[in-house]
Specification:
The complex is a heterotrimer. By secondary structure, chain A is of the alpha/beta class. Chain A has helices at 2-31, 44-60, 80-96, 117-131, 142-152, 187-200, 214-230, 250-259, 271-282, 300-303, 308-311, 327-340, 346-364, 372-381, 435-439; strands at 67-73, 100-101, 104-112, 135-137, 159-161, 179-180, 206-211, 239-242, 263-267, 291-293, 315-318, 384-386, 389-393, 399-410, 416-427. Chain B is an all-alpha fold. In chain B, strand 1 and strand 2 form a beta hairpin. In chain B, helix 3 packs antiparallel against helix 12 (287-307), helix 4 runs antiparallel to helix 5 (111-134) and helix 7 packs across helix 8 (213-223). The relative contact order of chain B is 0.17. By secondary structure, chain C is mostly helical. Chain C has a single domain, classed as ABC transporter involved in vitamin B12 uptake, BtuC, CATH 1.10.3470. Chain C has helices spanning 2-29, 32-57, 65-82, 87-109, 114-134, 136-139, 157-180, 182-192, 194-199, 204-230, 240-253, 259-278, 282-296, 300-313, and strands at residues 145-146, 232-233. Classes of the chains: A alpha/beta, B mainly alpha, C mainly alpha. Chains in contact: A-B, A-C, B-C. The interface between A and C is large, with 63 and 59 residues.
C-alpha cells in the first residue's frame, strides 16, 4: 500500500509539474528572453535571430568564429567499411588543402551514426546546437538521410549536403529546401545510361536481379525504363527481387539461368555482392551470360576482396571510375591509396568532392556563408573539376556529370579497379528525358519499373 | 484448457502439458497422415512451377545452406540441452572463426589448415568463456543473455577493428571452385562438399551420442542433471567439454560458411537468427531436432525465395511462428 | 524490520522527489542536445519497462516488442504522412494499431513459456519488420515516413520533453499500481512456477494474454512518443536490435524493478550517443559493460545498489536474502 501511495504521489506531482511548467515557459517564448535552454540558445525561435546576428557581426570583423562542418557516417556495424571510406575521403581533402579560406578557418567533426536514424537525429542536434555546425555532410543510408533532411528542413542556418545518400525523390518530387547533393548522385542517374548502352550493344532480352528496397528499385528502374523504351525487352517475370541482406543467393542464381537471357542487370549491396559473384561463377554462368552491374555492385569497396577471376571483365556504369585516366581522378586516387593503402571507392570520392564544393563556396563568398540561401545558390553556380570529372549542379541541386561505362580490370600490382570504356557526357538525373517529362512519372518502385508490363 | 486441471493435485504436473496439447492436435496418426498428404500436394504444386532439374537444384541449394547451419545449430543445441544456456555468442564465434580462417588462408594458402586452426582457437575461446564468464552465473537465464550478447558486441566490434568491414569471402581451394557436371546436371562443387561435410559430421555426432561413453554421459546429462552428478560423474567437466565442442563446431562453421556466404560485420547476428530458427523448429536440445530443423529451414528458405519471392521475408519466420503456436516445444522437442 | 522498510521507503521517496525536481528543472539546466537525449532515454525507458513487466515480473522475455511499439508508431506515421489526418486520428489509429498488434502477439504467444516464448515473439517481431519493408504504400519501405509534425503545443523540444516526462511518470505510476496489485503478485507466481499457479486454479494462459496486453499498452505509448520525437519512422525502429536493446536495458538496470529499465535506458542512450563521440570502439565498451555488470552485479545495477543498501541496513546481521529478482525457474523443468 505504501508503495502504491508513493507511486500515485509521483504521478500527481508529475502532472502538476507538467501543467505548471509548460505554460510558464510558453509565455517566455514570446519575449524570447528566458526560454529554458539559455545555455545554448538552442531553442528554435531564438536560435534564428541570435545566430544570425552573431554571424553578421563576425563577417564584418573578418572571421573570428571558424566555419564548422559536421560529418555523419556509419563507422561501426555492417556499413562501417563504406562509412570509413567516406570519412577518409573528407579528412584527406582537408589534409591536402588549406583550412584557412578567405580569412576563415574551417573545422570539422566526424561522428558515428551506427547506421541508426535515432542516433543520427541526436547527433545532428549535437553538431548543430553544441558544435555550431553550419554545414552537415550526411549519411550514406537512405533512411537516415531522409530522417536528417526532415530534421534540418526548417533550420535556415544549416546546409545539408548528401554526397552519398541517393534516394531519387530528394532532388525530384520531394525536394528539401536546404538540401544539396554536391558530390552526390541520384540512384537511377547512372543506370539510365547503362540501359541505353546495353541496347546499343545489341542485347535484346535482359533479366534483372536487384535488392528489394528503394535503392534497388531505383537503380533497376533506371536501367529497365531506358532499356525497354529504347526497344529492349525486360519482362516483369524475369525481374527477381531479393530481400536486403539475404544470405545465400544460390536460389536466385539458379532461377536467373532458367530465364536464358542475353544479359543480366544486377544490383546487390554489401555481403550480397560477393555472395552473388561466388554463386554466379560456381554455377558456371560467368562464361555463359554477361553481367551488367549497377554502380555500387562494381564499386571497389564491394569487390576488393572478391577473388579476381570472379569479377574480371565485369561491366557496369557509374559516375565514379577510379581507373579513369584524367589527372583530376588519378591525383586523388594516388593520394588516397598512399594515405590508406586502399583504392578509393565512390564513397571516398564523394566526400572529397563535397569538401571541394564547400571550399570553393567559401572562397566564392569571401568567407561569409551566413546567408545559407545565398550559399546554396553560389554552390549551384559553381563549375568544378572534381575526381568524378567536370561537375555542375542542376536547379534541383543534383550534379550533372559525365557517366562512365566501366570494366573491371586487373592492375599491374594485382589489385582490381574500374576503367572507363565509354563515356556519356553531361548526364543529368532525368536523362534522356526532360525534367518536366520525367517528373510526371512516379518514382521507381517494384510496381513501376518503366517496362511494358510494369 | 486449464479447467479440468484444477482438481489434479499430485505434482505430476509435466504430463498435464502433454494431454492438453495432444487434445489440440488430435491423434498422432491424423498428424502424420495429414503432414504426408500436405507434403505430397506441395511437391506436386512445386513441380508444376519449375522443371525437374530446377527442382533438384533448389533442393540442393536448400540442403547446402542448411548444412552450414547444421554445424552451428548442433553445437548450439548441445549446449542448450545440457546446460540450458542460450548461448547468443554463438554467432560471434562463427564470425571470428571465419575471420581467423581468412588470416590463415592468406598466410598459408591452405583452406583445410584454416578450418582446423579456426576451430581450435574458437574452442579455446569457448573454454575461456565457459570457465571464466559463464560458470559464475550458471543457471541465471537473464544474466546469461546479457553476458553472451555483450560478448557478441565485443567480438563483432573487435573483428571490425582488426579485419576491417569490407565484405570478404574466404578463398576456396581450386578443386572446390566451379561446377561439377553430373550427366548434364550442373551443380557447384563447393556446395556438394558442404553437404558431404555435414553428412559426415552429422553421422559422427549421432554415433558418438548413441554408442560412446561420452555420448551416454551427455544424454544422461540432458535428461537428468542431478542424477548424473549424484552418480559421481564430473558434470562440470562434461559441461565444459560440451561448450568447447559447440564452440569448435562454430569456428569450423565460420570457415565453411565464410567461403560460401561472405563475412561482414553484423553477420554474427544474422547466422545466429537462422541457427535459432533451426533449433527452435526442430526442438531445443535434440540433435535429431537440429538435423530435421536444418533440412526444413534450408528447404523453406530456398523454395520460399524461388516460389513466393514477395514473401521471402516471412517464409522463414511465419512457419516458425506457426510451428511454435501448434507445438510450443518445436517438432521433436520433449514436453 | 519495520523500521528498515520505512527507512528504505523514505530513501526511495527522497530519490523520487529529487528525480522529479530534476526532471522539471532539466530544461533550465541543460541544453537542447542533452534534453533531446533525456527525452529519448525516457521513451526508451518506458519501452524497457513494458518489456520488464513481461520479462521481470511475469518471467516472459520478449524479443519482438519493437513490433508492438513500431506498429503503433507506423500507425501514427501513416495517418500523418500518407493520409494527412489530424492529430486525434493519428493518435487513435496509432493506439489501435499497437493494441491490435499486442493482441495478435499475445494470442499467438500465450501458450509458450521460457525460451520458446522468446522465440515466438522474435518471429513475430521479424514478421512486423518484414511487413514494414514490404508494405511500401503504407510504410514507405526502407526510406521510411518523413514529415510527421508534433501536435500543437508540444512542437518545441522542451515542450515535448515536458510532455514525455509527464507521460512517462504517469505510466510509471500506472505500472507501479499494476505490479503491486493482486494481479501483479500472481504474475510473480507465474514467473516462479507456471505449473504451480495452474494447480492453484489460475488460468495461466489468460494471465499471460492479459499481461501481454498491459505491456503492449505501455509499448504502444512509447512507440507513439518516439515517432513524434523523431518526426520520422523507418524499419530501423522495428528491427530485432530495437527489441533486443529494450531487453538489455531492463537486464542491465535491474530486471524485476521499475526503476532498473529506466536506468538501463539512460546508460545505453548515453553510450550510443555521447560516448560514441569520443570513443570510436564504443560497441566494445558497451559489450564490456554488459559483461562486467553481469559478473559483478547479477541482478543489474539496481539489484547491486539495493543489495549494498540492505547490507548496510543489516550490517549487524547475517547477509539477508532479498526478494529473488532473477531466477531460472522459467526453464523447462524435469522430464
Amino acid at each position: 500500500m505504501r508503495r502504491m501511495r508513493f507511486v500515485i504521489l509521483i504521478s500527481i506531482m508529475a502532472l502538476v509539474a507538467a501543467a505548471c511548467a509548460a505554460p510558464d515557459a510558453g509565455d517566455d517564448t514570446t519575449t524570447t528572453a528566458a526560454a529554458p535552454a539559455t545555455t545554448s540558445g538552442g531553442e528554435e525561435a531564438t536560435a534564428t535571430t541570435a545566430g544570425g546576428a552573431e554571424t553578421t557581426e563576425a563577417a564584418a570583423e573578418g572571421c573570428d568564429e571558424p566555419i564548422r562542418i559536421g560529418v555523419l557516417q556509419p563507422l561501426t556495424g555492417g556499413l562501417a567499411a563504406s562509412g570509413t571510406d567516406a570519412k577518409d575521403g573528407f579528412e584527406l581533402y582537408w589534409a591536402n588543402n588549406s583550412t584557412e579560406i578567405a580569412g576563415c578557418t574551417v573545422e570539422f567533426r566526424v561522428e558515428d551514426t551506427g547506421g541508426n536514424p535515432d542516433t543520427a537525429l541526436q547527433k545532428v542536434d549535437e553538431l548543430v546546437q553544441n558544435y555550431g555546425a553550419e554545414i552537415i555532410v550526411g549519411e550514406l543510408l537512405a533512411n537516415v538521410t531522409f530522417a536528417l533532411a526532415d530534421r534540418l528542413e526548417d533550420n535556415e542556418d544549416v546546409i545539408f549536403m548528401s554526397p552519398i545518400g541517393s534516394a531519387d525523390d530528394m532532388t525530384q518530387r520531394n525536394p528539401f529546401p536546404n538540401f544539396i547533393r554536391a558530390g552526390g548522385w541520384t540512384s537511377s542517374q547512372t543506370s539510365h545510361v547503362l540501359g541505353q548502352w546495353a541496347y546499343d550493344q545489341g542485347f535484346a532480352n535482359v533479366a534483372s536481379m536487384c535488392t528489394d528496397y528503394a535503392f534497388g528499385w531505383e537503380m533497376c528502374g533506371g536501367f529497365t525504363q531506358v532499356f525497354s523504351e529504347a526497344g529492349g525487352t525486360i519482362a516483369p517475370a524475369s525481374q527477381l527481387w531479393n530481400p536486403l541482406g539475404s544470405t545465400d543467393l544460390g536460389t536466385y542464381v539458379t532461377q536467373l539461368s532458367g530465364f536464358d537471357p542475353d544479359a543480366v542487370f544486377v544490383l546487390q549491396v554489401g555481403a550480397s555482392v560477393s555472395d552473388f559473384f561466388q554463386n554466379w561463377s560456381d554455377f558456371g554462368l560467368k562464361e555463359e551470360i554477361p553481367i551488367l552491374a549497377g554502380e555500387v555492385t562494381a564499386d571497389v569497396s564491394n569487390i576488393r576482396n572478391v577473388p579476381v577471376e570472379q569479377v574480371e571483365g565485369l561491366i557496369s556504369s557509374g559516375h565514379w571510375a577510379e581507373g579513369r585516366e584524367a589527372p583530376e581522378t588519378q591525383d586523388f586516387v594516388e593520394l588516397f591509396d598512399g594515405a590508406t593503402g586502399r583504392l578509393p571507392s565512390y564513397y571516398a570520392a564523394a566526400t572529397w568532392t563535397a569538401a571541394q564544393y564547400i571550399d570553393e563556396t567559401i572562397q566564392a563568398m569571401n568567407g561569409d556563408i551566413s546567408d545559407k540561401a545565398a550559399a546554396l545558390e553560389t554552390m549551384k553556380g559553381l563549375e568544378l573539376l572534381t575526381p568524378f570529372g567536370p561537375s555542375v549542379l542542376d536547379d534541383y541541386g543534383n550534379p550533372i556529370y559525365d557517366i562512365y561505362i566501366r570494366e573491371v580490370v586487373v592492375r599491374d600490382d594485382g589489385r582490381i579497379w574500374n576503367v572507363v570504356i565509354d563515356t556519356y557526357e553531361d548526364v543529368d538525373q532525368f536523362w534522356p528525358k526532360t525534367a518536366e517529362e520525367y517528373l510526371q512519372q512516379p518514382v521507381y518502385s517494384r510496381e513501376f519499373q518503366g517496362n511494358a508490363g510494369g | 484448457m486449464t479447467d479440468g486441471v484444477k482438481s489434479v493435485v499430485p505434482p505430476t504436473s509435466a504430463t498435464t502439458d502433454d494431454t492438453a496439447r495432444s487434445g489440440v492436435l488430435g491423434s498422432r496418426w491424423l498428424l502424420w497422415g495429414g503432414s504426408i498428404v500436405a507434403l505430397a500436394l506441395l511437391v506436386w504444386w512445386i513441380l508444376t512451377q519449375m522443371t525437374a532439374t530446377a527442382f533438384l537444384a533448389q533442393i540442393l541449394n536448400g540442403l547446402s545452406f542448411g548444412a552450414v547451419l547444421f554445424f552451428l545449430a548442433s553445437g548450439f543445441t548441445l549446449i542448450f540441452g545440457l546446460m540450458r544456456i542460450t548461448n547468443l555468442a554463438h554467432g560471434g564465434f562463427y564470425l571470428v572463426g571465419g575471420y581467423i580462417g581468412i588470416s590463415v588462408v592468406r598466410a598459408t594458402g591452405n583452406f583445410f589448415l584454416a578450418m582446423l586452426v579456426s576451430a581450435i582457437l574458437i574452442m579455446l575461446l569457448g573454454l575461456v568463456t565457459e570457465r571464466v564468464l559463464l560458470r559464475p552465473i550458471r543457471g541465471l537465464e537473464k544474466p546469461e543473455v546479457l553476458l553472451t550478447i555483450g560478448l557478441t558486441f565485443i567480438l563483432g566490434d573487435m573483428s571490425l577493428a582488426i579485419w576491417g568491414g569490407d565484405p570478404t569471402p574466404i578463398p576456396k581451394p581450386d578443386f572446390l571452385n566451379g561446377a561439377l557436371n553430373m550427366g548434364g546436371f550442373i551443380y557447384p562443387r563447393y556446395r556438394l562438399f558442404v553437404i558431404a561435410c555435414a553428412v559426415v559430421i552429422g553421422a559422427i555426432l549421432f554415433w558418438v551420442e548413441k554408442k560412446t561413453r561420452w555420448g551416454a554421459m551427455v544424454r544422461a546429462g540432458v535428461d537428468d542433471r542431478e542424477t548424473v552428478a549424484a552418480l559421481g560423474i564430473n558434470i562440470k567437466a562434461v559441461f565444459t567439454g560440451a561448450f568447447m565442442f559447440g564452440a569448435f563446431l562454430a569456428g569450423f562453421a565460420g570457415v565453411i560458411g565464410g567461403a560460401f556466404l561472405t563475412l561482414l560485420p553484423g553477420q554474427d547476428f544474422e547466422v545466429l537468427l537462422f541457427a535459432l530458427a533451426v533449433v527452435i523448429i526442430g526442438g531445443l536440445g535434440s540433435l535429431k531436432g537440429a538435423a530435421l530443423g536444418v533440412v526444413i529451414v534450408g528447404l523453406i528458405d530456398s523454395f520460399g525465395k524461388a516460389l513466393i519471392p514477395e514473401l521471402s521475408f516471412f517464409t522463414l519466420f511465419a512457419p516458425m511462428a506457426i510451428i511454435l503456436v501448434l507445438r510450443p516445444r518445436g517438432l521433436l522437442g520433449r514436453e | 524490520m519495520l523500521r528498515s522498510i520505512s527507512l528504505t521507503g523514505r530513501v526511495k521517496l527522497g530519490f523520487a522527489v529529487v528525480g522529479i525536481a530534476l526532471g522539471i528543472a532539466a530544461p533550465y539546466i541543460f541544453d537542447r542536445f542533452v534534453i533531446g537525449l533525456i527525452t529519448l532515454a525516457l521513451v526508451g525507458g518506458l519501452f524497457a519497462q513494458s518489456i520488464d513487466l513481461l520479462g521481470g515480473y511475469a518471467g516472459l522475455i520478449t524479443l519482438g516488442h519493437a513490433g508492438v511499439s513500431g506498429t503503433a508508431a507506423y500507425g501514427v506515421g501513416y495517418m500523418a504522412a500518407k493520409a494527412g489526418a489530424g492529430f486525434p486520428a493519428q493518435i487513435a489509429v496509432g493506439f489501435l494499431a499497437g493494441m491490435v498488434a499486442a493482441l495478435i502477439f499475445g494470442v499467438m504467444a500465450m501458450r509458450s513459456g521460457g525460451v520458446y516464448f522468446i522465440m515466438v515473439t522474435l518471429a513475430q517481431g521479424m514478421i512486423v519488420w518484414g511487413l514494414s519493408i514490404r508494405l511500401f504504400r503504407i510504410t514507405g519501405a526502407e526510406n521510411g515516413l518523413t514529415g510527421i509534425p508534433r501536435p500543437p503545443g508540444v512542437e518545441l523540444y522542451w515542450q515535448y520533453y515536458y510532455l514525455t516526462f509527464a507521460v512517462v511518470v504517469l505510466c510509471w505510476g500506472m505500472l507501479g499500481i499494476v505490479v503491486n496489485s493482486p494481479f501483479g503478485t500472481s504474475l510473480k507466481g507465474l514467473r516462479e512456477s507456471e505449473t504451480r499457479m495452474r494447480m492453484l486454479g489460475y488460468n495461466t494462459t489468460g494471465q499471460k494474454l492479459y499481461v501481454f496486453l498491459i505491456s503492449g499498452f505501455f509499448a504502444t505509448v512509447s512507440g507513439i512518443l518516439l515517432v513524434y520525437l523523431n518526426g520520422f519512422i523507418s524499419p530501423s525502429t522495428v528491427i530485432l536490435a530495437a527489441s533486443a536493446i529494450g531487453v538489455l536495458q531492463a537486464i542491465l538496470g535491474g530486471i524485476g524493478t521499475l526503476v532498473g529499465p529506466m536506468i538501463g535506458a539512460f546508460i545505453i542512450v548515453f553510450v550510443q550517443n555521447v560516448v560514441s563521440i569520443y570513443v570510436a570502439r564504443w560497441p566494445t565498451l558497451m559489450g564490456a559493460l554488459f559483461v562486467v555488470v553481469v559478473l559483478f552485479a547479477r541482478r543489474g545495477l539496481v539489484g547491486a545498489i539495493s543489495d549494498g543498501w540492505n547490507r548496510w541496513l543489516n550490517r549487524n546481521q547475517a547477509p539477508g536474502i532479498n526478494e529473488p529478482v532473477l531466477t531460472s525457474t522459467n526453464q523447462p523443468s524435469g522430464p
